[in-house]
Each structure stands twice: as structure tokens, then as C-alpha cells.
Amino acid sequence: MAKKRPQTKAGKSGQAQVTNGEIPVVGAREPCPCGSGRRYKACHGRAAAHAVTELVQRPFEGLAGECDWVALRELVPAATVPLTLKDGLPEGVPSVTLATVLPMAWPALRRDDGSVLLALQNEATSGDLARDLADTLQRALEAEPGTPIPARRVPAEGPRLQDLLDADAEFAPEVHTGFEFWIPQSADGADPEVAASLERANAAAIPTVKLASVDSAYWCETPDKNHLRWVMPYPEEKLLDALARLQAAGSTSLGADTRLVGSFRAHGLMVPVWDLPTAMTAEECEKPAAAFAERLAGALASDAPLTAEERRARGGLTNRQVTLS
Questions:
Q1: Residue 288 parent element (H or E)
Q2: Are 273 and 262 within 8 A, CB to CB?
Q3: Which residues pair with 210 in a beta bridge?
Q4: Alpha carbon 82 to chain centroid distance?
Q5: Sorting pLDDT into bands at 50, 70 and 90, what band is 316?
Q6: In sequence order, what are the residues at sequence separation of 6 or more whose Cβ sits closer than 8 angstroms to the Cβ of residue 256?
Q7: Element (H, E) at 187
Q8: Strands 96-99, 79-82: parallel, antiparallel or unpaired by DSSP?
Q9: Which terminal Cβ of the chain has fewer Cβ within 10 Å, N or C?
């Protein structure tokens, strides 16, 4: 259904991933790049290890649109969202926009006009994705126009996205068919590297549409079949019980030849996934999804003990969970 992205990952032999000052980060047992002759974990890696924060299971909790943050981080190829800062935009920064990915895997970009693009799907360097993104955003706001923002080891102490963004502002993703938003319409021509990166990204992008009838549900098209992937805000145990009740009652279908096949677990939230016929469009999912949302609300409201059949259904759903992060 989707590949698991590790929250943190040490560099492979001889390959730097991020930098801590001028010292690349490498595998813990590799020679330290500073030339000391010691292993990295006993040299510059010691300070880097102290900088890694404890894993935060729900890094987007408290932000407007938490479910859509998770979807854009893990499921959606190409999307953008305007962001609103708590203290307003700094002078010379006309806008800040969240993007799923940027060319050459840049963590962020300060464009020539001063606007900022912040990438969501880059690798994390600590256990707190919200702190990683806040650090990148702050550096982008202070960078010179026309500057890509490189990855770096994030300090253990520092603001999180929740400290920088207006929690009351609307979070409204715009899903794109490709990555042309990388290149401003006013640009005369793209850098050759950017153009090549754009071509590769467009070729790999899975067609995706955000449903309008329910929150945080995304239809996508793959060669074999279509899918609906729906990020839900409910506590996992409560949601599993509710889905089990509906599964046992034969009420999880979204129409003919559709099937609830399992779920992802991503950033502390559950993402139920349906297989759909290849001919079923996103528009045709709207009414069935809205009807399912009503059935789910009723199941979530029930506190009755699960029946034997419902417990079996719950076990099946649990066995078909895949953890992304």
C-alpha cells in the first residue's frame, strides 16, 4: 500500500545525510569524517546523538488540519497549502506555503520574490518532526531570496510548528496533478536540474484527489486498482471497535466491488484503506464516503461490548495494519 518511511536513519557507509556544522553525519561505527581516527559514535556522533529528541508519536497534534498534515506527509504526492504564521509574515516575505516535496529534495526554498516553500516529506533528523520543520522554516524566513535551504542536524531545544503557526487558521490543501508549482509562472525558464527533477517527479506521481464530502479522505489511481485512503482523528482503539462493528454487520463497503482492506498507522493516527474498482472515480466516491461517515459516527457512539463476530472482525483489522511512522 505504501512504503514505510523511517523517522530517523543513519547514513550508509561513506554517504552523508545531514550535516552538523562541517562534519557530515555517517554510520555510528564508521570512522568520524573529522579525521580523528575514532568511530563517529565516539567522536562528533556523541554530540549529534544528544541532539536527537525523544520520538513524538503525534508531531502534528494541536495544528489545524492534523489529519491532512498526516496525509500530505505520507500519502499525497503533490499538494500545497498556504500557511499562516502566529506573528504574521516578516518584512520581505509575501507568503509561506507548505509543499509535499521540492526539487532535489530541498527541505525549503526562499524564492527570488522572497516567498517561502516548506517541504513536508523530507527525512527527519530528530524524533520530533514538528521541531525539524520549524527549524527549517525559521532558516528559510531568514535566508536571502533565491536560496535553497539545506538539511542540518536540528538542535534539541527549539520551537515547534505549533509555536510558529496560527492554530486557528484554515488548513486547506490543494492537490495537484504534478509538480509544476515548483516553477513560478513568471519564471523565464527552469534551472536544468530543477527541470530534470520535475520530469522525474511527475513521472512517479500517483493521480490523487481529495474528497469534498468528508474530511481528509484521498482517492488515488494505481495501475491495478484504485484506492480510498482516509485519515481519521479518532483514538485507535475506539476506531478499531467501530470499524469492527461495521465490518461484522457488512457495512464497511463503499459500493459494488469495494472492500475495506486494512489500515495504515501514521503519526499517531489511523488511516483506513479501501480497494476500489479501476473504473470508480473520485467523484463516485463522494456519496458512499459521506454515507459511511454517518454509519461510522453511529458505531463510534456505541459503548456496548463487542460480540464474538465483532471481536473476530477486529482481530482481522488489527492484523492488516501497517505502521508508516
A1: helix 282-301
A2: yes
A3: 218
A4: 16
A5: very high
A6: 277
A7: none
A8: antiparallel
A9: N
Nearest alpha-carbon partner for 194 in 177, 181, 212? 181
User: Region 287-293: what's the mean pLDDT?
Assistant: 98
Q: Please give the single-letter amino acid code of residue 14.
A: G
Cα separation, 248 vs 255, whole angstroms: 16
Q: Please state the pTM of the whole predicted model.
A: 0.83
Q: CA–CA distance from 177 to each of 21, 34, 70, 161, 255 (Å)?
A: 38, 44, 19, 27, 26
- What's 116-173 look like in SS3? EEEECCCCCCCCCHHHHHHHHHHHHHHCCCCEEECCCCCCCCCCCHHHHECCCCCCCC
Q: Assess contact for 229 and 209: CB atoms under 8 A.
A: no
Residues 12-71: tens digit of each pLDDT: 333 344 444 556 666 666 788 888 888 876 787 765 555 455 789 999 999 999 999 999
Residue 232 three-state SS? strand
Residue 227, all three cell numbers: 484506492
